[in-house]
Amino acid sequence: MKVLIVGGGGREHALAWKVAQSEYVEDLFVAPGNAGISQIAKVVDIQQNDIRALASFAEKNSVDLTIVGPEEPLANGIADYFAKRGLMLFGPSQESARIESSKVFAKEFMERFHIPTASFVVFDDPEQAIHFIEEHEFPIVIKTDGLAGGKGSIVAHNIEDARDAIVHMMIERTWGDAGKNVIIEEFLEGVEASVLAITDGENFTVLQPAQDYKRAFDNNEGPNTGGMGAVCPHPAVSDEVLKEITDYVLEPTISGLRYIGAPFKGILYAGIMMTKSGPKVLEFNCRFGDPETQAILPLLKSDLIEIILFALEGKVDEADVFWHDKKAVCVVMASGGYPKRYKKGYKILGLDEISGSPDSNCIIFHAGTARRGDTIITNGGRVLNVVGIGNDVKTASKNAYSCVDRIDFEKAFYRSDIAAEYV
């Protein structure tokens, strides 16, 4: 079959890497792709939000299945549009994607269906929001309602931080209309976990849980980013905790969305804080996580396309899902200045020395890269995802950082403590 993957980051490279191994796949296209993806798939010069052009490409090239990586096309209704044109796509409808695209919708949904989450208040007026924080204890969490590229959530430790956050979100509109409404919620303490499930709208299968590292610098300091690394399986998520998340978060969310007439078909991602009083939802995403996917998929022994086909047929619970008995640690190499301003166009050295074959102990997934002649250059904030595989977390971490040491580009930086608390 012919498969199209929408997106051009590290998550999409990991998806392409895994999909290319499927016995079902003859041709693989990725739009818009990146320099690394171009080595294993045919890259297509169509931007991820150009839904009409993507559908036309799928029609013209007899694409059998489209898989969507990023949240924006899903929030913009790509699944609905493809369905209208009779094209098969794996991803939720625009209505069910609201679980990510509107945090207000998600919080009110959780309240209605008794899904554990932080207590919250919604504001559409910046003056009222500032008045609220002036009478509130800290820390608190302030979030944009809409999509902000993983950067619309700010932990405020004092009144100055909180005021700045509200000004950026609601008045300066740093993230556009995403900050039209904001949520101010209780600060939760504990260990974070990312739990993803493939669902057909009724049945679901849970993937290996992972831990994402959001802060830019070591010791969880600095600004929030799209993610600076991941470890899988999550060392702190026991079978008992995973069952609790499945029973009290995933099951009621999937059944709740079906009940309100928005059955969720695709990847449901639950961002969890494991608190002293049990797991609570920080956020939902409507797609594969990034960079969690880069740590999860190398451990998946089963054919991902086969699982997706079962999901599209409404029988995902019948799919065989097997895992390698290994650990994976993903380290993100980023451009100096990220997540704020950074320069592009630096030559990347050392990539040719690392094979990245499915059975190797180090795999490199490209995120923000491009090709200039025969040279691969930096083309984004998060540039490379270096994934180490090992029998334990310590070995996986050692393999990842050993590969990081062999790669170089100007002003590169990365966290040196990914998974360090488990080594």
Explain how this protein is built:
The chain has 423 residues and is α+β, with helices and mostly antiparallel strands. It has helices at residues 10-19, 51-60, 71-75, 78-84, 98-101, 103-112, 126-134, 159-171, 239-259, 292-296, 304-312, 393-404; strands at residues 2-7, 27-32, 42-43, 65-68, 89-90, 120-123, 140-144, 153-156, 182-186, 191-199, 204-206, 211-212, 215-217, 221-224, 229-232, 266-275, 278-285, 327-335, 362-366, 369-372, 375-378, 382-390, 412-413. It is built from 12 helices and 23 strands. The strands form 6 sheets. Strands 12, 15, 18, 19, 22 and 23 form a 6-stranded antiparallel beta sheet that branches. A 5-stranded parallel beta sheet has the order 3-2-1-4-5. Helix 7 packs antiparallel against helix 8 (159-171). The chain is globular and about 60 Å long.
Flag low-confidence runs.
none
Helix content: 25-40%
Give the mean pLDDT: 96
What's the number of domains? 4
Say how many strands there are.
23
Shape: globular
